[in-house]
Amino acid sequence: MPDVANAVFIVDDDQDIRTSLSRALRKRGFEVQTFGSAREFLYAYDNEQVGCLVLDYGMPEMSGLELQQRLNEAAAPLELVFITGHGGVPESVQAIKSGAVNFLEKPFRQSDLVKNIQTALSLAGEKQARLQNHRQISERFERLTAREKEIVAHMIARPAEVSSKEIANHLGISPRTVDHHRARILEKLEVNSVVELIDLASRLKDSI
Fold first, then answer.
1. Where does the HTH luxR-type domain start and stop, copy by copy (predicted)?
2. Residue-wise pLDDT tens digits, 102-148
3. What is the predicted pLDDT for the residue at 88?
4. Spatial separation of the C-alpha atoms in residues 93 and 98, rounded to whole Å
5. Is CB count within 10 Å lower at the N or C end of the chain?
6. How far is CA 7 from the centre of its chain?
7. What CA–CA distances, in Å, run from 179 to 54, 84, 91?
8. In sequence order, what are the beta bridge partners of 56?
9. Separation between Cα atoms, residue 206 and residue 166, nearest integer Å
């Protein structure tokens, strides 16, 4: 797979389009890979590569919108720029609503495509950072036992009732047991207080 900062994937069933775009983009410093179908791209892509996907809207077997949906479901760190020779307003609206950077109709100026690719690469980098942050925080929460997760859930849902006695009353366990779990929770989540714990949970939610 190409270098992250300049990775551009072109998926178009028209060989001439793939050839002309790849030549033009490589001259501008992008690292380009081309694919003749959505399925060919999915076979090669590992769901971790960051970059811009220049995607033809109308292709046989699997359309550009279908590929976009698959990538969204996989939370792939890609940003899409659609290109099409026969797209209309409904198609472009659907593509943009699903997260595409733009929907360019052929013929388009290469300078316009380049600007959109640059925007897409910047957004893809930001998306990767959010995904990595989400993954790292999720891994901390996965360290917790079932009981520890239950206590954390109480702290998040009732931030005004986080004393050991209040949590113990709610869960039907002793305050001493809560104290033990609380210490383990803070250690596993790598935080120093309940305030930091709630903030970490909020960051997990915001990074989705």
1. 137-205
2. 989 888 899 999 999 999 999 999 888 888 888 899 999 999 999 99
3. 62
4. 9
5. C
6. 16
7. 54, 61, 56
8. 83
9. 28
> What b-and-e string marks burial along 73-91, b requiring 16 or more CB atoms within 10 Å of the CB?
eeebbbbbbbbbeebeeeb
Q: Which residues contact 113 (CB under 8 A, 6 or more apart)?
A: 21, 54, 81, 83, 104
Q: Which residue has the tokens 């986080």?
A: 162
Beta bridge partners of 105: 84
3-state secondary structure the chain: CCCHHHEEEEECCCHHHHHHHHHHHHHCCCEEEEECCHHHHHHHCCCCCCEEEEEECCCCCCCHHHHHHHHHHCCCCEEEEEEECCCCHHHHHHHHHCCCCEEEECCCCHHHHHHHHHHHHHHHHHHHHHHHHHHHHHHHHCCCCHHHHHHHHHHHHCCCCCCHHHHHHHHCCCHHHHHHHHHHHHHHHCCCCHHHHHHHHHHHHHCC
Residue 11, phi then psi, degrees to nearest 5: -120, 110
Paired with 81 in beta bridges are: 54, 102
CA distance 128 to 90: 29
Q: How many residues does the chain have?
A: 208
